[in-house]
C-alpha cells in the first residue's frame, strides 16, 4: 500500500507529519512508563534498603555469636585440666580419669547450653583414643575421621569448617602427642535447624525466602526447601559476594535479589522476592499505561493513513512524474480530476511538459549534435598525421631499394587502412584497437629493427570486449617514435602493457628516451589539466579530450616519467555497461 521514494523518505511531508505526531505522543507514553519504572525502582530500593539493613544486622549478630563461641573455644583449648587429661592419662588411676572426664563433660555441656546455635561440642583426644561430646558423653575416637579432620584443619585457614552437611568451629592443641598430630581437637558443630529458623524470620513477604552460602566451603543453608531452584540458579550465575541488589530469572519468573557479605565469616546471606510481589501495588497503573499506549498507537495509525491518503499519495504522484521528466519521458502528463491544491499543481505540471517539449529541439538536441561533431573533428585530426608518416616510411624504404620490405609494408599498410575505413562506428573493440596498434609497431620495426626494440604484452581476455574510441593507442605509440625513440642514438625500447583496477583499465605506453626534461613534462601535464578552446588541439591532447568527451571526468591521459627514463603515458578509461558488447 505504501510506496515511498527510497532515497528521500525522511525528507517527505508524510514522514515529517507522522514524525511530528510521534514527537508529541511518544514523550507522553514514555513519561507514563517512566513513572511506572520510577515507582517500581523506588519500591525496589526501599525494599533493598530495609532488607540490606536487616541482612547486615543478621550477619553482625551471627559474627558476634561465633566470636563469642571462639573465645569460649579458645578458653577450653587452653584449659589445664583438659591438657592434663590428654598428657597424663596413662599416669592416672580410674578415679582421676573419671573425675577429669566429668569435668570436661560438664564444661562442654555448659558451653553448649550457652548458645542456641550450638548443636554439639566434641573434644577429640588422640592420646587416650576418646571423644568427649556434650551430647553423646564419652565415646571411642574414630582415628580415621580424626586424621582427616586434622589434615583439613592444617590446610583450611577459614574460621568456619564445612563437614557432614554442617558448619563447624575447629581448634587444636599441639605438643606432647604422638607424631605430628595434635593432642586434642575441640570441634563445635553449629545447629543447622536453629540457623534455618533464624533465616525464616528474614522472610517477611509472601513467597520470599533466604539462604546462607559459604563460598570457600561450598556450604548452603536454605530457609525452606522451596528455595532450592533459586539457590541453584544463583550459584550457576556465580554472583559476587559484595553487597548489592540484582534480579534473577528462575523458570521464567523474575526474582528481586538482595545480598550481604561478611568478610569475617566469609558468608553470603541472600534473600529473594518475586518481582510480581513488588509490582503488585502498581498493577492498576500498569494496565492503564498499556491501555493508553495501545490507544495512542491506534491514533498514530489512523493519522498516518489519512496523511498518506490525502497528502503523501498525491504528492508522490507529482514526484514520480518529475522523475520521469528528468529521465527524458516528456509524453506522460498527469491524468487527474482533482479540484484542490494538488489539482492546480498537476495542471501546471502538464503545461510545463508541453513547454519543455517545444524547447528541447532548440536547446538540448543542438548541444548533443555539437558535441558529437566536435568528437568527429578531433578524430579526423589524427588520420592525416599517420598518413603523412606512412608515406615517409614508404619513401625511406624505396630509397634504399628494399623491395621485399616495401611489399611487406604495403600489405601491412593495406590492413592498417582497412581497419580505418571498414565501418563508420565511433567505438571499436579494444581487441581490434590493440591489433591495429600492433600492426603499426610491426610497420615501424621494418624501419627501426636494429635500433628500436618493442615489448608488446598480450591483451588480457577480460579486456578484449571493452569498447573504446577508434585510434586511441596507436597515436601514443607514434608519438613515442617521433619525439623520443627516433632521436635516440643508443638502443631504444618501447613497452606497451595493460592493467585493470576495479572499474578502471589502464593501457600503458612508455619508452626509454633521454630527451624529455622535467620542464617539458610539466608543460605537457599542465596542458592536459588546463586545456581550453584556444589551445592547439593535436597529438596527445586530442586523445585526452576524446576520452573525456566519451567517458567523462576520471578518464583521459596521465603523463609521468617512466622508470625507463622516458615518457610514460597511461590511458585511463572508466568502464561502464555501455563499453561492453551485448
TrEMBL record:
GO molecular function, one term: phosphorelay sensor kinase activity
Gene Ontology cellular component terms for the protein in this record: plasma membrane
Keywords: Cell membrane, Membrane, Phosphoprotein, Transferase, Transmembrane, Transmembrane helix
Subcellular location: Cell membrane
Bilayer topology annotation: Multi-pass membrane protein
Matching PANTHER family: SENSOR HISTIDINE KINASE YPDA (PTHR34220)
Annotated protein name in UniProt: HAMP domain-containing protein
